[in-house]
């Protein structure tokens, strides 16, 4: 519930602040996010899923797109290089990088989850001693419950 309330408040704040940002900056942010996503995907494939390089790929992908766009703008008549546009583009890549980092936490697949155990148990401690089993199984017959240590009095009371 706490997360839902925080999300609703954040969205309400963002809707109000959207009117304060130029449309051009929003487009640069969106473009940076898309190119950052592409850069993160490429970096993830190259680095075999390394989370640090995935984040770097998102930022570098958006930075390259922003620099290319601003270089084109600077070469046009009546247009110029705008550092604010470049910052909005790179911020889009950073946002995607952080989102990927948050939603792709590496899960520990080594042991059980929760509070089942916190220590490693050696498999060698769970081996069966076959010489003890030979004592229980005699002449190919199943052992009686009294051979397991149950008294006949206990067995009589539990059957009722």
Task: Note down, in words, how this protein is organized.
By secondary structure, the protein is mainly alpha-helical. The protein folds into 2 domains: 20-103; 131-158, no CATH class. It has 6 helices and no strands. Helix 3 (51-75) packs antiparallel against helix 4 (83-103). It starts with a helix and ends with a helix.
Structure annotation, total helices? 6
Q: What does the overall shape look like?
A: elongated
Order of helices and strands: HHHHHH
Strand content: under 5%
Helix content: 55-70%
Low-confidence stretches: none
Mean pLDDT, rounded to whole units?
A: 78
Using only C-alpha atoms, the radius of gyration works out to: 32 Å
How many structural domains does the protein architecture include? 2
> Main β-sheet, in a few words?
none
Instruction: Report the end-to-end length measured between terminal Cα atoms.
Output: 51 Å
Look at the helices and sheets and give the structural class. mainly alpha
What's the number of extended β-strand segments?
Answer: 0
């Amino acid at each position: 519930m706490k997360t839902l309330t925080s999300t609703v408040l954040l969205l309400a704040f963002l809707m109000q602040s959207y009117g304060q940002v130029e449309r051009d900056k929003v487009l640069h942010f969106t473009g940076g996010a898309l190119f950052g996503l592409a850069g993160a995907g490429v970096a993830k494939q190259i680095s075999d899923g390394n989370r640090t390089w995935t984040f770097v790929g998102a930022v570098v992908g958006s930075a390259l797109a922003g620099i290319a766009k601003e270089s084109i703008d600077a070469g046009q008549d009546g247009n110029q290089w705008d550092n604010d546009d470049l910052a909005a583009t790179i911020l889009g890549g950073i946002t995607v990088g952080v989102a990927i980092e948050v939603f792709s936490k590496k899960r520990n697949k080594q042991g059980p989850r929760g509070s089942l155990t916190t220590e490693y148990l050696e498999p060698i401690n769970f081996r069966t001693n076959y010489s003890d089993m030979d004592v229980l199984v005699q002449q190919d017959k199943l052992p009686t419950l009294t051979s397991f240590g149950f008294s006949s009095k206990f067995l009589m009371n539990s059957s009722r």
